[in-house]
Specification:
The protein has 472 residues and is an alpha+beta fold. The chain has 4 domains: 57 residues, no CATH class; 168 residues, Beta-Lactamase (2-Layer Sandwich); 55 residues; 149 residues, Histidine kinase-like ATPase, C-terminal domain (Heat Shock Protein 90, 2-Layer Sandwich). 47% of the residues lie in helices and 20% in strands. The longest helix has 45 residues. It is elongated, with a radius of gyration of 38 Å.
Length: 472
Amino acid sequence: MRWGLRATLTVTIILALSYPAALLASQWVSAEALTIRRAHLVRPIYLLVLGYLIGYPGEHERRSKRRLGLMVELPAAFRRKRPPGAGLVRVMRRALDHFEARRALLILRDPESGRYFTWDVTRRDKPSRLALRITEADPLPLPFAAPTEGFVANELRAGTGMALCSDVLTGALTRKLISPDLAAFGDDSAQVALAAPVLIQRELRGRALITRAAGDKFTRDDLDFLLLLVGQAAAGFETVRLQGMAEEVAVFEERARIARDLHDGFIQSLAGLDLRIEACKLLLQRDPARIPHELEELHEAVARGYREVRRYLTVLRTPSRDGADLWSMLERLTAEFSVREGIRVELARSTSEVTLPATATHELAQIAREALRNAVRHGRATSAVIKLGTSPSHTYLVVRDNGTGFVDRAAAIDTDGFLAPEAAPWSIRERTAALGGSLAVWTSPGRGTEISILVPSGGQGGRQSLNRRMSA
């Protein structure tokens, strides 16, 4: 086992001093039998050189193990369920222990708000003290250092103090005069500093700064390790932050999807019940004999709405929906509208097989449902055609009816008969956007409406321009 340079040299010096002491003691015991030669006086020097040669690789191995242990602990500091700030503080305290420093400063700029968060960990005596400040401006701008440069400054004096700057991207080394703000940051007990930029996708997000007592200087090796440590910690911190944002976006999208499903299903059923109740009130005065028939239809509508809610709750509880057979879902949809609404719906089959993720299948079926419902209730359509096709990279859905069209939105229709994107039905528009697809709505008064949707076959992906009109 290697001890390290400090321990090895200590033992070697003791042995080197013990050697001539033993010779002198032997001469004092028996001066005639022992003759001290020049070689006896030189041998302690050999011991010192040998101790240094043994201790140097031991010291290198000891430092390497400490650094390796610190790097191995980094993934554990940034976990999915742990706040990113707690992971940063943990890394800062471990860095204080590794560099035997008394103060660590971490400045991070929030890319969303533009504010600067400053964590200041000070360790005079254990335990350490933590302070957090939030400012609108950078509390330590350090104008002498480029955004991609870290530096080591072993003398914090404005005008005379020099810093060895190392560029993270190019590895170039330059010496620069330190700025007054860095000199003011130091105090009597912390006069040497080590700094590294926090770069995320080559964008400066802040800096990490470590200081310790004067006389215990930092080395270029310390700077290289701090640059590596900060780079890995920044990657872990950004990963956790992006995961949190992705979870928030996923929750928002799921809430929006539930809102769309309620609008297209349960709320529409309630609206239908309200209309039937109003019709019963009128029949009570004009034709009471028809009330039993209307009540029977009202009872069927309530039962149908109840089944829709139960089916939707089952869908929500199911971990994943079966999206392998979109044709079956569209066939049930056409049969449902033909029987319930009295509209003749034709399903145009494609010769190619349509394979989509479960989410895309559900969304396309809901888009077709909403398009048919709008055609019946707003366009008074008597027939409609649903066409579904696929290509190697995209899937298209076209729903065309013979209704009155968007007569109430004539101002939003261009010369070619296409509806402005913001004037399209919001439920269909949001579902198409959630799939990363494109939407085109053609309409003409008295000639009906054609809704054309193009989505990537892999689900969500990049958008592709949709032809102005796709014939159904």
